[in-house]
Amino acid sequence: MTPAAQAAFLADGCADIVSIEELEARIARKRRLTVKFGVDPSGSELHLGHAVVLHKMREFQDLGHRVILLIGDFTALIGDPTGRNEQRKPISREQIEANMTTYREQAGRVLDLERLEIMYNSTWLRPLAFDDLLRLTSQVTVARMLERNDFSNRYHTGLPISLHELLYPVAQAYDSVAMEADVELGGTEQLFNFMLARQFQEHAGQPPQICMTAPILEGLDGERRMGKSLGNYVSIGEPAEQQFGKLMSLPDAMIPRYARLAAFRSQGACDELASQLAAGAVGPMAAKKDLAEEIVAIYHGREAARAARAYFERTVQRKEAPAEMPEFVLQAWPRNITLVLAASGLAPSKREAERLIAGGGVRLNGEPVTNPSAPWQERTPAVLSVGSRRFVRVLPPPQ
After folding, report:
1. Which fold has domain 327-395?
2. CATH class of the domain comprising 3-214
3. CA-to-CA distance for 209 and 55, rounded, in angstroms?
4. DSSP for 37-97?
5. 58 with 250: CB under 8 angstroms?
6. How many Cα neighbours within 13 Å face the side chain of 60?
């Protein structure tokens, strides 16, 4: 593939690229580029929003480029302020280490781990002396920092901005210098930091990196960006049945967008799907099931994806109990169903069990439960469920 063809292929689907001409020229000159994607281990799970960028990384891998997953174990101590209207609390080193342990396995569901390098920015950020920090901060003005939307909004509305938050973009930009990055990948909200890195690299005598951002994937609510804290996410590492069930809650209007950003279909195919949905040639339920199966197959394989679809159709659409489910053995006869929900783990507490019953989400042997004080009268194995995906077979106490 020629440098021009490579650049066009890699730029496809990007929201921003600074710039495609530089990318083509860099490929022609170096052939094998150093490509960086940084993640802060502020949570233990990577989700479909992260996978938009991971897929682009895989494309670089398949073209023979050097791809690096940078774990921001040091910058996580600062707390990423990007896209936030309030201070973000830094997390403890113990929590960072716990979160980092799962990242490689999850990223490996998209990337070729044999060709993936993993680095940690504590390697070069922790040894920096105070005079090094002064040298770095002298390269950027406060006015430039306040160009960032999140900082600008907070400044003009009188919300506090801590000095350590201003150091986050500086630290992230220095990562690119330390790694001598040719390309940096990330979401659109990271473009300011990427551009600052170009400035730092030029000051260090390096060619400035090419900045490539991917569109932000909205969560299952179809409105806000996908995030674990918002509860609107699908984790890469979740079981197939759980992924499929979550995806089926996606608003119909989001089907073409998920087809593009989560299933990685071509733009032309997604435009055609949108037209078919609008014309009624394809029904939303059928399209959504096909899409969910396609996405689940990326992380669990075709067989598991087909099984997840069958599970959904059986348990949700036909409201049948699954053939296999966890079992819970009563130790004594309980007074009411609320106690069984809490004891079996279907609810974290009796109060939550009562809330679930009040919300109409609890069924006993397929029948809705409406009274949280209803006595437990089942003397044989019974199926207790919460929602459409959580089932427990409750067994009577041992004789």
Report:
1. 3.10.290
2. alpha beta
3. 20
4. EEE--SSS--BHHHHHHHHHHHHHHHTT-EEEEEE-TTGGGT---TT-SSPPPP--HHHHH
5. no
6. 28
Q: What is the pTM of this model?
A: 0.73
Residues carrying CATH 3.40.50.620, the chain: 3-214
383: helix, coil or strand? strand
Q: Is 144 exposed, middle or buried (0-12, 13-18, 19+ CB in 10 A)?
A: middle
Contacts of 192 (CB under 8 A, 6+ apart): 147, 148, 169
At 73, list the tokens.
């174990």
Residue found under tokens 């690119």:
176
Q: What is the pLDDT of residues 52-82, one digit of tens each?
A: 999 999 999 999 999 999 988 888 776 655 5
* Residue 236, token pair as written in the block: 């890469």
The three-point CA angle 105-311-282 to 5° equals 100
Which of the two residues, 47 and 105, has the higher pLDDT score?
Answer: 47
Q: Write the pLDDT tens digit of every residue in 217-271.
A: 999 988 888 887 777 899 998 889 889 989 988 999 999 999 999 999 999 999 9
Q: Which CATH number fits domain 238-317: 1.10.240, 3.90.1170, 1.10.155, 3.30.1050?
A: 1.10.240
Q: Where in the chain is the domain with CATH 1.10.240?
A: 238-317
Mean pLDDT confidence for 190-209: 92
Phi, psi of 177 (to 5 degrees): -65, -50
